[in-house]
Design a protein that fits this description.
It contains ten helices and ten strands. With about 230 residues, it is of the alpha/beta class. It folds into two domains: about 5-80 and about 190-225, 3-Layer(aba) Sandwich (D-Maltodextrin-Binding Protein, domain 2); about 85-185, D-Maltodextrin-Binding Protein, domain 2, CATH 3.40.190.10.
Length: about 230
């Protein structure tokens, strides 16, 4: 097969890809993969700036407007995993009660500062959630709002007491402690899919998409707080 190929990928699946999937794929196929990791919104900005890719992993719904612009082959869109949103604190901090919606809201209000992203799928959802809960003004007065990256770093360096992000992304900061997922009443799952760029796809790119839905990848997703797509 030809190669190397370029993969644009959301951060949510990065740990599974870095720890297991891409090295195993290259070992089995001999195909080298060049990676660009960013939130889906940032990946779209890269595309708008003229950057190109062979395979892209992003929020499933993000591909429809890209297909309308002739950038991706929507027929190749393949769901690979989904992630819920969770909450993290420093390793030595007491764990707040987030078992119920009311307890979760109180934990947010009690925090000195809550950190979340303005471009990641989790942060976009969280910003709307606190609006719907009627606590956005109070939280945002002292929130630590980050454009992109691993949000739990903000609790480790003292900027915030609580970090909000996809459960799979919170794993990237081992010095932080994951308290758990949002309670069911306010939980939100984001589905991620892989797709080929528009135009003739190389065998190598097609092979990667297939591998991302295979057993090795599925096991890696499960080990990094991702869930299979029903």
């Amino acid at each position: 097969m030809s190669g190397p190929i370029t993969l644009f990928s959301t951060l949510a699946v990065r740990k599974a890809l870095d720890d297991v999937v891409l090295a195993a794929f290259t070992a089995e196929t001999g195909i080298e993969v060049t990676t660009v990791f960013d939130p889906t919104v940032q990946l779209v900005r890269r595309i708008d700036a003229g950057e190109t890719f062979d395979v892209m992993i992003g929020v499933t719904g993000s591909f429809d407007p890209l297909a309308e612009r002739g950038i991706v082959d929507l027929a190749s869109r393949t769901p690979i995993a989904r992630s819920g949103i969770g909450l993290a604190v420093t390793s030595d901090a007491p764990e707040p009660d987030i078992a119920t919606k009311d307890a979760f809201v109180q934990a947010l209000l009690d925090a000195r500062s809550v950190a979340y992203s303005v471009t990641g799928a989790s942060g976009i959802y969280f910003a709307q959630l606190i609006e719907d809960l009627g606590i956005a003004d109070r939280l945002n007065q002292r929130a630590t709002i980050i454009e992109k990256g691993f949000i739990a770093e903000a609790v480790v360096d003292g900027r915030a007491d609580i970090a909000i992000q996809q459960l799979s992304e919170l794993l990237f900061v081992p010095a932080a402690k994951i308290v758990g997922p949002f309670p069911p009443e306010v939980q939100h799952y984001t589905e991620f899919s892989a797709t080929l760029s528009a135009g003739p796809a190389s065998e190598a790119a097609q092979a990667l998409v297939r591998y991302l839905t295979g057993p090795t990848a599925a096991a890696a997703y499960g080990q990094t707080n991702l869930e299979p797509v029903a």
